[in-house]
């Protein structure tokens, strides 16, 4: 029988001494390319904002296509690793196992593995899987080092040109490696904004065809409690383990971790895949209202980091847009001497939210009203 456990550190501050480590899964570094498609999508739902955005785009001297622009998270690979490891060691007193999962790339672990103190970090990524009009994200952890880059090329080829007949073969290839862990990340997030009904239909087909290759479903540290509760229900119906995923894009460490008896990442994978045991631990930051945490991530993204190397200190050096002539990606800072005045005004307004009184008011307005709960199916064993 699968053993799923769920704990919240603010309810159970003392940990069972059987645990030797905690695992941070699914977090992003500045190697992740994050689309800006959400800006025009949000604006379309608000006529005045849509008009203002269209007006500014028409006034721009460079063609503006926000669907092709992207931003990168502020933390470097080394900084992201340090944020995750320090939280585990300082707050839990456990050894920290960290798996960084940028979108469709293993550049971060590749860079870190040349440094002795991080040479053990697994080759992992978040694989974008188009399927029947939907997009699913799979956390693929601990690729075999000798074949990691070759496998990433194969996965990227499917993402660029999805052929349904190839997907099962790719998943089977990954599953055949006993040290590889495959996690369905935030399964209920409608990334393509097709609507929940079409998304659920695509998800059902995806699970019907490929469930045998999925080792766990993710409880996501940046998604709502209601959504995570629904993921637990789905995992129970499909008889799959739940597992943590921080999905960190800013500077806040992951709000969801896994407790483990393992001393290495390979041992942790064995614990999930073979022993069928998972203990998800939500950290205190998850108790904060989601809107407050989202604002903090936004503030992290638009902040300056003078200690960084030249070219990634300011927000406009971390946002990219293809050159209309060469079609090569360029930082938007190369298109101007200083950011446009209207952007400065917007960011000034956003930075006003970085105020203790405003935070207190938002916490009162958006208190979490939904508790995390494990469903009652016998496939689960709750720890609380």
What report would you give on this structure?
36% of the residues lie in helices and 19% in strands. It has 12 helices and 14 strands. It folds into 2 domains: 245 residues, Alpha-Beta Barrel (TIM Barrel), CATH 3.20.20.140; 82 residues, no CATH class. The strands form 3 sheets. A 5-stranded mixed sheet has the order 1-12-11-2-5. It is globular and about 60 Å long. Helix 1 crosses helix 2. The longest helix has 16 residues. By secondary structure, the chain is α/β, with parallel strands linked by helices.
Number of strands: 14
Task: Specify the helix fraction band.
Answer: 25-40%
Strand order of the largest sheet: 1-12-11-2-5
Q: Quick one: CATH class of the largest domain?
A: Alpha Beta
Show unreliable segments.
377-384
Tally of helical segments = 12
Radius of gyration (CA) equals 21 Å
Query: How many structural domains does the protein architecture include?
Result: 2
Share of β-strand residues:
15-25%
The helix/strand series, from N terminus to C terminus, equals EEEHHEHEHEEHHEHEHEEHEHEEHH
How does the helix and strand content classify structurally? alpha/beta
CATH architecture of the largest domain: Alpha-Beta Barrel
According to CATH, the homologous superfamily of the largest domain is Metal-dependent hydrolases
Q: Indicate the overall shape.
A: globular
Q: Biggest sheet: strands, sense, closure? A: 5 strands, mixed
Average pLDDT for all residues = 88
CATH domain topology of the largest domain: TIM Barrel
Q: Kindly, what is the distance between the CA atoms of the first and last residues, rounded to a whole number of angstroms?
A: 19 Å
């Amino acid at each position: 029988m699968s053993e799923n456990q769920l704990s919240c550190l603010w309810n159970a501050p003392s940990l069972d001494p059987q645990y030797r480590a905690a695992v941070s899964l699914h977090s992003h570094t500045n190697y992740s390319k994050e689309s800006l498609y959400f800006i025009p999508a949000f604006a379309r739902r608000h006529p005045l904002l849509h008009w203002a955005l269209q007006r500014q785009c028409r006034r721009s001297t460079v063609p503006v296509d926000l669907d092709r622009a992207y931003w990168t998270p502020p933390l470097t690979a080394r900084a992201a690793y340090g944020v995750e490891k320090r939280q585990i060691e300082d707050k839990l007193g456990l050894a920290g196992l960290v798996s960084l999962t940028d979108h469709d790339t293993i550049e971060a672990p590749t860079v870190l593995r040349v440094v002795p103190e991080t040479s053990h970090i697994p080759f992992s990524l978040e694989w974008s899987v188009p399927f029947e009009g939907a997009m699913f994200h799979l956390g693929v952890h601990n690729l075999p080092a000798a074949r990691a880059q070759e496998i990433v090329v194969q996965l990227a080829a499917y993402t660029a040109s999805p052929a349904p007949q190839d997907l099962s073969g790719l998943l089977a290839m990954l599953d055949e490696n006993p040290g590889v862990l495959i996690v369905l990340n935030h399964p209920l997030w409608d990334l393509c904004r097709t609507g929940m009904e079409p998304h659920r239909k695509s998800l059902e087909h995806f699970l019907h065809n490929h469930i045998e290759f999925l080792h766990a479903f993710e409880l996501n540290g940046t998604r709502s409690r209601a959504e995570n509760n629904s993921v637990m229900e789905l995992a129970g119906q499909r008889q799959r383990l739940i597992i943590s995923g921080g999905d960190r894009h800013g500077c806040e460490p992951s709000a969801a971790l896994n407790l483990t008896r393992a001393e290495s990442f390979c041992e942790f994978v064995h614990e999930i895949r073979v022993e069928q045991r998972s203990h998800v631990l939500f950290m205190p930051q998850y108790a904060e209202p989601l809107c407050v945490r989202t604002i903090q991530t936004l503030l992290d993204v638009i902040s300056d980091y003078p200690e960084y190397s030249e070219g990634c200190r300011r927000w406009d050096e971390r946002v990219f847009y293809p050159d209309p002539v060469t079609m090569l990606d360029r930082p938007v800072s190369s298109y101007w001497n200083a950011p446009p005045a209207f952007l400065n005004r917007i960011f000034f307004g956003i930075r006003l939210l970085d105020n203790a009184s405003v935070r207190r008011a938002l916490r009162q307005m958006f208190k979490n009203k939904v508790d995390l709960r494990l469903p009652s199916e016998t496939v689960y064993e709750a720890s609380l």
